[in-house]
Amino acid sequence: MTVGRAAAAAACAFIALLAGCGGGSPVPQASGVPPTSLDDVLRAYPVSLAATQSLVNPGAWTAAVTPTRLIVGCSAGGPGYSAGRVRDGAFNAHGSFLPFDQSIDLRAAYTSSHIYLYARWEDHSQIADTARDRWYWGAGVLLGGHFLEPAVASAIQRPLPEDSLARHLDEDSLMLMFPIGDPGSVHDGPITAGDGTQTANEAGVLDRPFSRVGCMAACHTGPMRMSPAVGRVDVWNWRAGTSNPLGYALDESGGGSAAAGRMTDGGARIVALNGALGPAVEYDPASGPQRLTHPVTGATLTVDPMTALLSGHTRPFAGAIGQGLFEDDTAGFGCARCHGARGAAGSGGAPPLASFARAGLDSQDYRARLEGVFASATASHYTDGRLALPAGQTRLTRKQIDDLAAYLAVLPPTAPDPSDGVLATGSGVAGVILTPPKGNAADIIVLNASGENGLTGVYSAGTATYTVVLRRALDTGYPNDDVRFTGERGERVPFGIAVSDGDRRNHAGSPLLTLEFVG
After folding, report:
1. Which positions ≥6 away from 37 have C-beta within 8 Å?
2. How far is CA 112 from the centre of its chain?
3. Integer angstrom CA distances of residue 446 from 45, 75, 294, 299
4. Partner residues linked to 484 by β-bridges
């Protein structure tokens, strides 16, 4: 059905109903998300090439371009269900298993060459989570609920580490999945154990096609591999901390083997973890601010070095050396005597240092602030006995200051809960290194990304909502990795969508949906 501009406005008033995944009753909507359409068909409407300039502005969508199409995730339940598992009355979108349903305002438009997708959803934690795998020292107790790397704890032979480096926090995300080629020929399969034994999947069956169950045919063949046993799927993976800062969504694909998992298209990794048991590198202020130019709009994107490091802006991490300087022993300066272990404050009214690095980000070089503390040979730290210097040394060298600063950056935050301001008061070292995508990996662009971490255009703190506008060519020229849209009127393509709130392991997902080209 073709819907004009007047009908588009009327469509925004549809009554909210729960769609799919076991049914349910009408879901109360938060202020950040409008009512939900009963329709499970997302209609893409044709727009002229001249009109596409306005699609960069999310307001143009809500005003005139396409009607509201909203998708509701399954209702939430109690703990104990792994991510993405659909049960009657049990599906969650947050690591703490909050009892809510996730609604998404989803719209689409297309030209003769590109498809445009608009997604708007409420961020229930009301925090723009962008700090994936941020490194902290001794944060196992403070951030136990956000400790994401049990493998690290096992590798260093201790539980949640209290006296070592640990990765914490995660990022918000939006993910879409399309079958590549015939959706009826994309199948999951039985779960295969390490010894080769095969058992039925979670639905109690051995095989399900994408044309019947959507992304369940790929996501849930075992431990969330997102790779069907037969056929291939195209994954559009927008992440607030690891793709949005670059102005892109991750362009991924997988299939042909349930054990293979998904990979970035072309095999070009644009997100790499910064070390395994501790950060390998830190931000290098000598490289200048981490700035990028948006590939379409030309907007300047500035990446916060506490959130992510850009390739070419790093240097070896010196926090372990800095720790030795901080401590009070034969080789240390005795900082811990006044500032306390892990900088938590100690004697003589010395301030805590856990937020030192975060508080100095105005210039993106908090090391300069620390250098200012020790700039003069008459500085009080030198003259009143608070600082123990090696024999013959009257002041700290620049390298010693840099090493101390590296250690201060990984001190755990003073607030134990992210909702109490950990993202504002904690510092940490970025847990990921980003490289702008190229070629086959650079197909999906976030049109409205701008400002610091690209969030200026996509996140509204006032309403705690994300609005993301994606653009991709109808035919990328990579048929093995990308779904191909003809853009012909009447074309219908099944797909699924999921939203995660600060925890990639728990998300709200949709039932089988259909993208239809109309107009």
Report:
1. 11, 14, 68, 69, 70
2. 31
3. 19, 29, 9, 12
4. none
Q: What is the mean pLDDT of residues 188-194?
A: 63
Using one digit for the tens of pLDDT, what is the confidence trace for 392-442? Answer: 888 889 899 989 989 988 887 665 555 555 555 567 889 999 999 999 999
Distance CA 517, CA 210 (A): 19
What's the pLDDT tens digit per position in 337-354?
888 877 877 777 788 787
- Between 179 and 77, where is the model more confident? 179
Where are the extended beta strands (E) located within 365-480?
432-434, 445-446, 451-452, 459-460, 465-473
Distance CA 458, CA 4 (A): 26
Domains (range + CATH), the chain = 5-129+170-273+432-517 (2.60.40.1190), 318-425 (1.10.760)
Cα separation, 380 vs 386, whole angstroms: 8
Q: Across-strand partners of 43?
A: 516
For 503, residues 6+ apart whose C-beta sits below 8 A from its C-beta are 94, 95, 170
